[in-house]
Amino acid sequence: MARYIGLIDGKKGAYGVVVPDLPGCTAMGKTVDEALRNAAGAVRVWAEDALADKEKIQRPSAAEDLRVDREIANALANGAAFCVVPLVLDSGRSAKANLSLDAGLLEAIDEAAAVKGLTRSAFIASAAREKIVADA
User: Was domain 94-136 assigned CATH 1.10.3470?
Assistant: First the structure.
């Protein structure tokens, strides 16, 4: 999983994230958390579009390398902050995994999956993706 450095900036009710390594990749949100979640989705869609067009996806730059860029340094000096945006791409193929979970937790997962109309696997995958994005 790649982790890109983004720049987040804004004010209460309107925040934006720009990912310098991925030209045109931006996201917005009413809160910082929403902007960061939306940034993860924007990076994924940007990468999927690039791959569909047979383009290479640039490797993430180090924060130290980005900091020397004049535009980025200026944005940081004016209140922007670095953030980490994960790129979680689906490979298009399923892989089996043997998990050991507490029986009570497994029962709760199955109940929650049923309420959402998901399989156990789909529910666990979506929960894992949400956790990865939230903890980036």
Answer: no
Q: Are 42 and 19 in contact (CB under 8 A)?
A: yes
pLDDT score recorded for residue 134: 77
pLDDT tens per residue across span 71-99:
999 999 999 999 999 998 888 888 888 98
**Burial zone of 36 (CB within 10 Å; 0-12 exposed, 13-18 middle, 19+ buried):** buried
| CATH level 3 topology of 1-89 | Double Stranded RNA Binding Domain (3.30.160)
Please answer whether residues 56 and 49 qualify as being in contact, where contact means their C-beta atoms are separated by less than 8 angstroms.
no
